[in-house]
Amino acid sequence: MEQNNEQFNSIEEEQELEENRKKRYIRQNLLLILLLIILVVTVSTLSYAFYREYTDLDPSGDNSQINTIKSGEILFSYSDVDGQGNGINIVNARPISDEEGKALFSSHTYFDFQILADTSVNLQYEIVALKENNSTLSEQLVKIYLTKVDGTLETPISSDPVKTYGEYEDTKLADTKGKTLYQGTISKGTKVQEQYRLRMWVKEDATNYSNKQFSLRINVYAAQVK
Questions:
Q1: In this structure, are residues 157 and 146 in contact, taking their beta carbons and an 8 Å threshold?
Q2: Of residues 43 and 67, which shows the higher confidence score?
Q3: What's the pLDDT score for residue 117?
Q4: How far is CA 155 from CA 142, 164, 192, 198, 224, in A?
Q5: In angstroms, how far apart are the furthest CA atoms of the chain?
Q6: Can you give the pLDDT at residue 48?
Q7: CA 68, CA 59: separation in Å to the nearest integer?
Q8: The predicted structure's pLDDT at residue 12
Q9: Cβ neighbourhood burial of 123 (10 Å; 0-12, 13-18, 19+)
Q10: Distance CA 21, CA 114 (A)
Q11: Quick one: residue 85, left, alpha or beta (phi over 0 = left, psi -120 to 50 = alpha)?
């Protein structure tokens, strides 16, 4: 009788172990399926974001490369013809007058960028210029000139006389450094495509400018407003 009880108990233990193995197997499979679903969704999202980021605009002009940076519902794009990225750099430049500077149109002397938006909310945006750490030329000697471009027509945005980098006000945006060049608003339901051109030169009466450089990065920040 005792032997039968032992056999019975042994069978019950084996059955319990088998049930536990089945439960662990099911849990492992469910976890694996969940992880696969998360992976597929993540890859799909990243693929979509990558596709949108690099196909919203077509390259324009010879040897140009369109780059885009999204900020909320605004798209900031720039043509990286000279490999400078989203900015401009002057090295060992000679001083020139404001009239000469406003007319600069050769390689490395200006930087074109666009702001595009098709938004369902009201947006306020700010164009911010940030001096790079490798700049050795005084920010009081470098003139910054921003215009809005429409075909062959350029409308000045910068004040006259043209300010130096140091004369622009610091941006008041949280966790952001740089100088505010321009602020604008875009109303909801409005489709916007605005092109800007930035020029930079050494001011006419500058001294102590030889063998020095000044590098600038341009960024656009946007936020929803009522």
A1: yes
A2: 67
A3: 85
A4: 21, 19, 17, 12, 27
A5: 113
A6: 26
A7: 11
A8: 62
A9: buried
A10: 61
A11: left
Cβ neighbours for 9, distance < 8 A, ≥ 6 positions apart: none
Per-residue model confidence as pLDDT tens digits over 69-84: 455 567 877 755 445 5
Q: How far apart (Å, rounded) are the C-alpha atoms in residues 114 and 107? A: 18
Q: What is the mean pLDDT of residues 125-131?
A: 94
For the ranges 61-70, 100-109, 162-171, which has the lowest average pLDDT?
Answer: 61-70
Q: What is the reported pLDDT for 34?
A: 58
- For the chain, the DSSP string reads -HHHHHHHHHHHHHHHHHHHHHHHHHHHHHHHHHHHHHHHHHHHHHHHHHHHHHHSS---STT--EEEEEETTEEEEEE-SSS--SEEEEESPPP--HHHHHT--STTSEEEEEEEEE-SSEEEEEEEEEE-TT--S-TTSEEEEEEEEETTEEEE-S-SSPPBGGGSPBP-STT--SEEEEEEEE-TT-EEEEEEEEEEEE-TT--S-TT-EEEEEEEEEEEEE-
- Both tokens of residue 10? 């042994």
Average pLDDT over residues 144-150: 95
- pLDDT greater than 60 at residue 56: no
170-192 burial code (b ≥16 CB/10 A, e <16): ebeeeeeebbbbbebebeeeeeb
pLDDT at position 207: 92
- C-alpha span between 207 and 97 (Å, rounded): 14
